[in-house]
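User: Fold both of these, please.

Assistant: Here is the first one.
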Amino acid sequence: MRFTTRSNTRQRWHVSSLVLLVFLGFLAGCGNPTNSQTGRMRVVMTDDPFPAAYVSSAMVTITKVEARNQSADGSPFVTLSDQTKTYNLLTLQNGITTELANLEVLAGTYDQFRLFVGAASVTLTDGRTFNLTVPSGASSGLKVNISPAIEVSSQLSAELTLDFDLSKSFVAQGNLTTAAGITGFLFKPVIRCTNTSTTGRITGTVRDTSNVALEGVTVSAIQDTVVSTTLTSSTGQYALVALPAGTYTVKAEKTGYITLQQSGASVTAGNATTLNFQMTPQ
């Protein structure tokens, strides 16, 4: 899931699998909010999809979003949104986002988000729905650190993305070879936060040896461990977004095809790297 924050200048925050984009815009100032001491914060959400052929929807209800301002006196947490909204994370893939909040915030140093999750559920392609237990999500909030912290100063805005990794956050139970074999899910939210000004993306298309676009291919960006994962669309296209600048190994996997892996994919801030795959049937 990805969050983004924006204002006069723009930066973004992403979350993998489910990506929340928080768009923060800021002006200099401290103390009580005035026109010269605040900036606008816009929060949107996107998803780095859950790679399961048997899942038709993955729903999350967010009741409140907060950000911690280290520079604030008294209570450091600022409420970005307190409106209850439910999202199907499977509709937020390959860079698609949805707005969570849009408001003014005080200048300062922001180093953490708190997401209050009221409910989560998964519906399978056979029609069964599993309502999941949310650990601490409704009472104390899910804490996501912003590293490094975002400094909000005069005429500077920040855009961040919270990337909610569905493949790690929704853990299926039972026999996973068929939809009927799945007996439930454990909800263990895994979220990362990146500063869009320091990130880029890897995009491309996956086709078979007959040049037919392949849907549902799992494409992963790896640096020692998996950083981000997505699924190809019906046209075979994919986008791995909010990747910190650096060099990645990119892997493409799909049942019935030989797994492909390409190393040395370079990502630079603000740019897109194109990497296409052609998969051979097993």
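And the second sequence with its predicted structure:
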Amino acid sequence: MQEKLLEVEDLTVSFGRGKFRVVDGVSFTLGREKLGIVGESGSGKSMTGKAVLRLLPGGATLEAKRLQHQEVDLLTADERQMRDIRGRRISMILQDPKYSLNPVVRVGEQIAEACRLHQHVSGQEAAERAVEMLAAVQIREPKRVFDLYPHEISGGMGQRVMIAMMLVTEPSILIADEPTSALDVTVRYEILQLLDGLVSRSNLGVVFISHDLNLVRRFCDRVIIMYAGRIVEALAADRLEDAEHPYTRGLLAAVPRIHAPRRRLQVLTRDPLWMEAPGVRAP
């Protein structure tokens, strides 16, 4: 039986004293695997990832029957415990490095800071590990890049820096929120291959949040499909074409295909009954 790194049961995130549910009864488990979360903007994907780390905006209310990371109950953990968990045990790659990196701090120092905070090593050792991690994410001349500011590096290099920062602490879970969305297609697949290799060597559990069905199909082991804050379908990534829910079928039909060109892509038709149906519990 696969080890459970994360257990989420009936997770709800709401605003306005519970009137507006942006995540509505989401349940899934995560082992040492790559789990994709797919859906349109506003479906609750990113909010689900942030809820795991309790990084919600002001005014948000989080409720769940269970939110467990190994021996730690994330619902009852105090803020001091959560600060220790964030980055050290569960890391999160945010969407765009331009907004995630501190513009006035050198990129190497930002990676080294994460190492100092969570692994309690000296400044020199943290800097050495940061350089090693920059090399691990295939950045040329890592010592030179260590001293650069975020505005001096490209988008692809910035994304590699973010990956280095999140993995230098050797977490057991990585939440990747659209980690390639700001990149062109060629660099996107390079970053994905890099991330895949690093994850496989470290034997992590990954939650991969994306709009891109083709990326998820290539990268992930399992996929959950979210609509209006709920999970409407869950299946193996290599069985995505066998999806049965009309929402998933609509998303697949809206993807352009080079080998099967169409004059017009299908427009997704939504059924109000989807909002009333109970969510699916992903195994």
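The longest helix spans residues 185-202.
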